[in-house]
Amino acid sequence: MPCELLVQCPDGQIKTVPLAGSRLAVGRSSGVELSFPDDAGLSRQHFAFEADGDAWTIQDLGSKNGTYVNNIPLKARLILKPGDRITAGHLAIVYSPPDNDPNAGVVVFEGAESTSPTTSTVVTSLEGAVTAQTLAIGRGGEKASVPLQALLKYGEQLSQYPSLDEMLPATLELAIQAVNAQRGVLMLLEGEHLVAKAHKGEGFRISTAVRDKVVNEKSSILVRDAQLDDAFKGRMSIVEQKVHTMMAVPLQTQDHIIGLLYLDSPFILREFTKDDLSLLTLMANVAAFRIDNARLVEIEQAERIMKRDLSQAAEIQMGMLPKKAPEIPGLDLSGYNLACRTVGGDYYDFFPYPGGRVGLALGDVSGKGMPASLMMMGLHARVHVLAEDPGNLGAFMARINKATCAQCPSNRFITFFFVLLDGETGEMTFANAGHNPPIVVRADGSAEMLEGGGPVLGILPIAPYSEMNGRLGRGDMIVLYSDGVTEATNVAYDEFGEERFIEVLKRHRAEPSNDIVQAVTRALAEFTAGAPQADDITLVVARRL
Q1: Is 98 exposed, middle or buried (0-12, 13-18, 19+ CB in 10 A)?
Q2: Could you point out which of 127, 144, 390, 447 has its C-alpha 20 to 30 Å from the C-alpha of 488?
Q3: How far apart are CA 262 and CA 176, in angstroms?
């Protein structure tokens, strides 16, 4: 879409002229592209627009009466900026390139030459509006009570709209009715930007100076007659929209600005008054508190829904973990999981096989909360399918990794350990994908780590994994765990660590597996007393009887 000019012709008509080609000259001569033969204030060839890459420039062509850009005499070739206003003779032109603002159909903010109060402008504040309305009410009589009645009615009617979707249009409509305006727009601050939330009418062009004075200085502004006010009378947007009288007030809660309310009237039926400005300022203050409260209610409701959803997700997730360990001849098994949030990313499981064998699995998804929980459930599904017949555990782990890589976000990964244990012979075969090496505690009190393995799941689709072997003797045990155990910290940020963990396991090695789990969790609770749980804690203990 090409850039365009908004032209106010000498006869008062408004027209849009697209800027095409490389040059467009303006003057009285019939030989120029934009000719105004009846404008005696123009020279035959007065000034010209010329393309300069993606921009446009303007240059005076030696005119008799001069060319002005934003009320400044044009002395040399000038690159135009959006909203620049060019005047020459009886002609006024606004340079207006395409607007990519998402709110361009409702509100455009444009520059203004001045924001200083003139005879046509009134500036007040919330404190000034309160004082003015109090004095007006105190003078007595039926007319003096009108603002108070309007305010009371406004607050009462707004209370009927509990949701923001209903409240915002109602707020605007009631304000328009209260001051007999014809158009308006209500905008709320989202970050640093004002976003139109309700409007009656289209194509609002609001001075950036007015916007900044309202939002930054908490000022309420009334322009009684925009056609006479020095800051507005020459603006094409005012002329084009035939705006006559306008008001802009802050949506203010105490010292906090949450938005802006703008009203105007394009026709000279009734000018806004200072009392209108005071009333609108107070109405905007009432509305701001209502809007803020409605926002808080919506946030609280969203939090309740999220809490409920998380609670249900936690129930689903806990249902995917084993309710109890299977009974395998020659083995004593226990498992434990405690998420640091409502849902977690740790996973453990048992897989009984014929012949007295059992598979033990433990995985840890990077991160916490709902994203980790969703990935954990995906891991659970993949392992359950592939673990029906694991075969060689190196190949088994490679298949899990390939399936994980296909669905794993780039900033996530999973550590995973799987071991097949024979309760009769104590023989172990295992594979490790970047997980903490499990600890084997022997009956004589010695301990060792099951080192070795491949990379974490979800990073390299063709990563190699190998099957390794070991053996548990009578009275030996193997302990699988997540790093939430060894990396648990106390209030001084000291880690529980592998040494403390192994010492607890050694002391309780002859006890039932469930008692060993309780001993570890009790030691963790004593060590971290007063410090929040930073990660999910998961344990799997298998003792050979």
Answers
A1: exposed
A2: 447
A3: 10
